[in-house]
Specification:
The protein has 54 residues and is an all-alpha fold. The protein has one domain. 80% of the residues lie in helices and 0% in strands. It is built from two helices and no strands. It has helices at 5-32, 39-53. It is rod-shaped. The model has no long low-confidence stretch (mean pLDDT 79).
Length: 54
């Protein structure tokens, strides 16, 4: 049997890849989870109601 360095190198590369992928997924989830509320709809709704009432 020869040296078994290839499987060790491949394993370390795979683990490093999975760690990068996991970190990227966590970052994407953190930026995605923050809901951005727009005050435009709430402010526009009373204005439209006032315009239709007149």
């Amino acid at each position: 049997m020869g040296q078994q360095t290839n499987k060790i190198i491949k394993r370390r590369r795979r683990i490093a890849y999975l760690e990068r992928k996991k970190a990227k997924a966590i970052e994407a989830a953190a930026t995605k989870s923050k809901p951005r509320r727009s005050a435009g709809k709430k402010a526009a709704a009373p204005a439209e109601a006032a315009a239709t009432a007149e």
